[in-house]
UniProtKB/TrEMBL annotation:
GO biological process, one term: xenobiotic detoxification by transmembrane export across the plasma membrane
Entry's localization field: Cell membrane
Main subcellular localisation: membrane
Sorted UniProt keywords: Cell membrane, Membrane, Transmembrane, Transmembrane helix, Transport
Name used for this protein in its record: Guanidinium exporter
Family to which the UniProt record says this protein belongs: Belongs to the drug/metabolite transporter (DMT) superfamily. Small multidrug resistance (SMR) (TC 2.A.7.1) family. Gdx/SugE subfamily.
TM spans (from-to): 33-50, 57-78, 84-103
GO CC terms of this entry: plasma membrane
Record's bilayer topology term: Multi-pass membrane protein
Molecular function GO labels: transmembrane transporter activity
One Pfam family of this chain: Multi_Drug_Res
Length: 104
């Protein structure tokens, strides 16, 4: 259950990170409310997950999920550049996340 909560927390982190772009500097009320809501949910789920998971592992996986998801959605939604180096770095992050999951 803790791993499920952690993955959900990571997905909400992706949501708020992408949401920041749509708030336009927190000047748009609905995107701002959704972004802040995703932030609160993400942190709350992380807090629940670390009750049964090592803090360092959980935090690294949470940020890793957020980082990889945000980069991928940045490519898809905002036409950010796709280069071999960027894709290689994403692969390294995913490898690190998997390693931490199996080491926990």
């Amino acid at each position: 259950m803790s791993w499920t909560l952690l993955v959900l927390a990571g997905l909400f982190e992706i949501g708020w990170a992408i949401g920041l772009k749509y708030t336009e500097g927190f000047t748009r009320p609905l995107p701002t409310a959704l972004t802040v809501g995703a932030m609160v949910i993400s942190i709350a789920l992380l807090g629940l997950a670390v009750r049964h998971l090592p803090m360092g592992t959980a935090y690294a996986i949470w940020t890793g999920i957020g980082t990889v998801g945000t980069v991928i959605l940045g490519i898809v939604l905002f036409a950010e550049p796709v280069t071999a180096l960027r894709l290689g770095c994403i692969a390294l992050i995913v490898t690190g996340i998997m390693g931490l999951k199996f080491a926990a």
